[in-house]
Write a structure and sequence with these properties.
With about 350 residues, this protein is mainly α. It has a domain of about 80 residues. About 65% of the residues lie in helices and about 0% in strands.
Length: about 350
């Protein structure tokens, strides 16, 4: 445990004429129960604006520096009267796997009067769905989260921003009804709902969605193009490499460009690597930085490791697939049982 004078830190934070210094916030990491009581007492003297600014600063610092743990503060702040503070507290708990928090998030989703709080609760419950699918928490907790999200999504009186977050949370679920929801939602009249459907497809780890996602790269809405690129990256869709590289020649929206570069880093391959190497030399510093990080991720991937070895040894990459094969890749056949069965029968026949 670090040596800290918490009274001095809290006294400094209470001076609202002074900006919040991140160096001070390090002292609020991993508070003991006694220290948390000290923090709570000081918190009651802060103005609403100071409380919001402090929680926002803690959330940002926790994301930047994983060594800092403010979960004790975030869990306590869930009961704050300020809706914005409750939202930020849930955001801060994004890596907290405690199943004891699940009932609280369900309560927020169902009963909180604030739309943003309910939406944040849906996002939080989506994490439990994901963790349960990865067997990081018992499956029963994931099922409870799915049930709550399912009911919320199908509630016609619920705000669209809450329903869309519920759909995103369901994306990682193996519930048999989820694929139908995503298939329909991608054509919803509301572009926000369509965007969430694409996001959920990427979270599904199901390559069946690749042919659904590719056309959205040409959407008139930048957010849909961005989410399609992200989802295709999550699914490591080789069929998306050529279309996304071509998009870099014409795409003007920087968020979409960043999503493309990140996706290329996840998918990997020689073409993706060359495109990222070119982007590293971009005159736009932000884009060059994103490309550099994507290139690092590419090399960290299994295929990237082999490519790195080839580069070190001076070996040439394998010949690229033919144009038609490279465009469609193997992604479209992985989920086709009939195709797989035909291939198996042909292989068996060749064996005799």
């Amino acid at each position: 445990m670090m040596n800290r004078d918490l009274h001095k830190v809290l006294t400094s934070l209470s001076n609202e004429q002074q900006p919040i210094r991140h160096q001070l916030l390090r002292n609020l990491s991993e508070l003991t129960s006694t220290e948390l009581e000290q923090f709570q007492e000081a918190w009651r003297g802060f103005s609403p604006a100071r409380r919001r600014a402090l929680i926002q600063a803690l959330v940002s610092l926790a994301e930047e520096q994983t060594a800092f743990n403010y979960n004790a503060i975030f869990a306590w702040a869930l009961d704050d009267a300020d809706a914005r503070v409750r939202v930020l507290a849930m955001e801060g708990l994004w890596e907290d796997h405690r199943t004891t928090l699940l009932p609280r998030f369900i309560h927020f989703l169902v009963y909180d009067e604030d739309v943003d709080v309910r939406a944040a609760a849906a996002i939080a419950l989506g994490r439990y769905v994901y963790w349960a699918e990865l067997e990081e928490i018992p499956r029963g907790y994931g099922e409870r989260a799915v049930e709550a999200l399912w009911e919320t999504y199908h509630n016609p009186r619920e705000h669209v921003h809450v329903r869309r977050r519920a759909l995103e949370g369901l994306g990682a679920s193996s519930h048999p009804g989820v694929p139908r929801l995503l298939e329909l939602a991608q054509y919803d009249e509301n572009p926000f709902m369509r965007s969430s459907a694409l996001y959920a497809m990427g979270r599904s780890a199901d390559v069946r969605w690749i042919p659904h996602l590719l056309p959205h790269l040409e959407s008139e809405f930048p957010e849909l193009r961005m989410e399609a690129a992200r989802a295709l990256g999550e699914l490591e869709a080789k069929a998306a490499v050529d279309p996304m590289i071509l998009m870099l020649d014409t795409e003007e929206d920087m968020e979409v460009r960043f999503a493309i570069l990140e996706a290329l880093g996840r998918i990997g391959g020689e073409k993706a690597k060359k495109a990222l190497e070119l982007a590293v030399d971009s005159e736009n510093e932000a884009e060059a930085e994103v490309a550099e990080m994507a290139l690092e991720e590419l090399y960290m991937g299994l295929n990237g490791i082999y490519e790195l070895i080839d580069d070190v040894l001076g070996l040439k990459p394998e010949e690229e697939l033919g144009a038609e094969e490279d465009l469609w890749g193997d992604d479209f056949y992985l989920d086709d049982p009939l195709e797989a069965e035909i291939r198996r029968l042909l292989d068996d026949e060749d064996a005799y």
